[in-house]
Amino acid sequence: MPSKLDKVPINNPKLDKRVKLTDEDKDNIVKEYESGGISITSLGKKYGVSKRLIQFTLFPERKEKAKERYSENRKDGRYYDKDKHKEYMKKHREHKKELDNKGLLGSDTEGE
């Protein structure tokens, strides 16, 4: 059953566990890579994310191709595990409830 908090957005990317990189991080990654001397793998380790996410940040066209392939493969039922989805939604709702109890949900907390 959906929670009342499901429709309340998490306005601060630093509090949203689904967001791995902030816009500032993405800009820094592009600058560091373009200046040379650092590999995609090293950037991934530095920012604590996968090499693939760094590639998607540096080369948005690769992300679009991956999205298209994902959509095609999803049509035949791949990639969906009902039990995993249920577990992830439960964790996400618990996190949102925690944020709500601290008063950090629903208001614009970008500046914190």
Briefly summarize what is shown.
The chain is an all-alpha fold.
Protein described:
The chain is mainly alpha-helical. Among the domains are: 40 residues, no CATH class; 29 residues. Helices cover 57% and strands 0% of the residues. It has 5 helices and no strands. Helix 2 packs across helix 3 and helix 3 crosses helix 4. It starts with 22 loop residues before the first helix and ends in an 11-residue tail after the last helix. The C terminus is likely disordered.
SSE arrangement:
Layout: H1 23-35, H2 40-47, H3 51-58, H4 60-74, H5 82-101
Helix pairs in contact: 2-3, 3-4
Beta-strand percentage?
under 5%
Query: How would you characterize the largest beta sheet?
Result: none
**Beta strand count:** 0
> What's the tally of helices?
5
Radius of gyration: 17 Å
Kindly report the average pLDDT value: 84
Coarse shape: flat
N-to-C order of helices and strands: HHHHH
Q: Residue share in helices?
A: 55-70%
Low-confidence stretches: 108-112
**N-to-C CA distance:** 32 Å
Structural class: mainly alpha
